[in-house]
């Protein structure tokens, strides 16, 4: 079964007036994983799709949705997948890719059939991002051994973390989709600080591996008009091109960042010093 929803883009001046409920309804994606279902959110921010796929007792095929007006989901799109659960398999037009937790797969435009399955008693949880594409690039699996790994942050600022670049242009040819995984070390809670914006592309953040009973405050908005959204484990949030995207948790956690837009330059950021945020 495939469930899907639609989100319009928001004007930043309008967003300044949103109350808590409206902020959450516009940007938070709170129901990604449900047994034997595919849950998709189609956003007008660069026509980005965020989704969760949880095969338990049967395989799940990625079907097209009405917003795409195409016979197959990937007729005009590319797809990034990161498994955040038990071991699973993604089969693309008959070719099987086994994914352990925190391993990624890029699927190029034009694939006709993409099927998701779990291999163990603990179900796989496939987090997916998709963006429009203009040409086909080869499918490619990316393990943590293949990733570009960067150590960031310091203990004294509570943001010591490991950045794993997975589906990025240095590793995988893509049209515009970029994805990576950041792991906060124990005792560290801040991500993406100093905060930044980039008017040339949007992002989506997916938070996972958060301890039960804990929470994450995701900060968004213009640098001088910030807002926050309290989030739980296995939830995602849309980040417009005009918004910062940063967060702090009541314990450490991991998150997946995905982006699409004007360019593939990871360092394309307009940074705002922490003491200048409002």
TrEMBL record:
It comes from the Bacteria. InterPro entries: KduI (IPR007045), KduI/IolB_isomerase (IPR021120), KduI_N (IPR027449), RmlC-like_jellyroll (IPR014710), RmlC_Cupin_sf (IPR011051). Keywords: Isomerase, Metal-binding, Zinc. GO terms for molecular function: 4-deoxy-L-threo-5-hexosulose-uronate ketol-isomerase activity; zinc ion binding. Its EC number is 5.3.1.17. Pathway: Glycan metabolism; pectin degradation; 2-dehydro-3-deoxy-D-gluconate from pectin: step 4/5. Binds 1 zinc ion per subunit. It catalyses: 5-dehydro-4-deoxy-D-glucuronate = 3-deoxy-D-glycero-2,5-hexodiulosonate. Its cofactor is Zn(2+). GO terms for biological process: D-galacturonate catabolic process; D-glucuronate catabolic process; pectin catabolic process. Pfam families: KduI. Zn(2+) binds at residues 196, 198, 203, 245. It is an enzyme of class 5 (isomerase). Belongs to the KduI family. NCBIfam families: PRK00924.1. Catalyzes the isomerization of 5-dehydro-4-deoxy-D-glucuronate to 3-deoxy-D-glycero-2,5-hexodiulosonate. This is 4-deoxy-L-threo-5-hexosulose-uronate ketol-isomerase.
């Amino acid at each position: 079964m495939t469930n899907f929803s639609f989100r319009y883009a928001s004007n930043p001046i309008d967003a300044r007036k949103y109350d808590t409920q409206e902020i959450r309804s516009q940007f938070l994606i709170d129901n990604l994983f449900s047994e034997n279902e595919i849950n998709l959110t189609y956003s007008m921010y660069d026509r980005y799709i965020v989704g969760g796929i949880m095969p338990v007792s049967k395989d799940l095929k990625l079907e097209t949705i009405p917003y795409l007006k195409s016979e197959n989901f990937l007729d005009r799109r590319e797809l990034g997948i990161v498994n955040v659960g038990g071991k699973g398999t993604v089969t693309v037009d008959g070719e099987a890719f086994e994914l352990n937790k925190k391993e990624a797969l890029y699927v190029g435009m034009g694939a006709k059939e993409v099927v998701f399955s779990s291999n163990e008693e603990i179900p796989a949880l496939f987090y997916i991002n998709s963006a429009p594409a203009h040409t086909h690039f080869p499918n490619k699996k990316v393990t943590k051994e293949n990733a570009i790994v960067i150590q960031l942050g310091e203990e004294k600022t509570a943001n010591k973390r490991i950045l794993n670049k997975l589906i990025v242009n240095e590793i995988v040819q893509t049209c515009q989709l970029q994805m990576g995984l950041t792991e906060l070390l124990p005792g560290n809670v801040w991500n993406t600080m100093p905060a930044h914006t980039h008017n040339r592309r949007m992002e989506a953040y997916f938070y996972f591996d958060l301890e039960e009973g804990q929470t994450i405050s995701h900060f968004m908005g213009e640098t001088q008009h910030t807002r926050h959204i309290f989030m739980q484990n296995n939830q995602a949030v849309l980040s417009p091109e005009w918004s910062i995207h940063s967060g702090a948790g009541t314990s450490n956690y991991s998150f997946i960042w995905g982006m699409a837009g004007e360019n593939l330059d990871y360092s394309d950021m307009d940074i705002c010093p922490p003491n200048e945020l409002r």
